[in-house]
Amino acid sequence: MTRETMVAEDASVRSLLIPMEDSYLLLPSTVVAEVVGYSDPEPLPGDYPSWLLGRFNWRGQRIPVVAFEDINGGSGALPATRARLMVLKALGDRPELPYFAILAQGIPRLVSVHPDGIEDLEEPMDDAPAVAAAVLAHGEPAFIPDMEFLEDEIYRALFD
Fold it and tell me: How is domain 3-159 classified at the CATH fold level?
């Protein structure tokens, strides 16, 4: 996902600002399948990266849960009192991974992103591989996640 996919010329994109520990994620609402209350994911047996928190049951499927801060080098994101799981539609063409969830630290806020309301931030993202861009969306600093990177990492951790 890139900044360009967030804003189409002369059109606003319904999006969600998703609270993380120290920042926000910005995603188009079409990528979000559902926002559900937090419940502890079922731990995965074996040796998995710490950012892969486990799986939870959603509509008859076992969905992997990712701590976004941890995949970017953070350590041990713990769910806040108002934590949620953001069930996201995987954009890759992998039948084994149609959805995954990201731990959010609160209730997301619906925003309309218009080309005039978003600008790039000049922050280096070298140490945040799951971030496609840092932006200012209607005055709020936010990260646009690199969905391809996230899906590749989840797939490698679970299926390779």
Answer: OB fold (Dihydrolipoamide Acetyltransferase, E2P) (2.40.50)
Give me 52's structure tokens.
């892969």
Q: Please give the Cα distance from 9 to 97 (Å, whole number).
A: 31
101: tokens are 């969830």
* pLDDT, mean of each 10-residue run, the chain (160 residues): 54 91 92 95 91 95 94 77 94 93 94 86 76 88 94 94
CB atoms within 10 A of CB 150: 24
Residue 55: what pLDDT? 96
Q: Report the side by side order of strands in the sheet with 140-145.
A: 109-113, 13-19, 24-28, 140-145, 131-137, 118-120
How far apart, in Å, are the Cα atoms of 20 and each of 24, 55, 85? 5, 19, 11
Sheet of strand 52-58, all strands in order from the earlier edge strand to the far edge: 32-37, 84-89, 99-104, 61-66, 52-58
Q: Is the dihedral of CA 90, 155, 73, 83 positive or negative?
A: positive
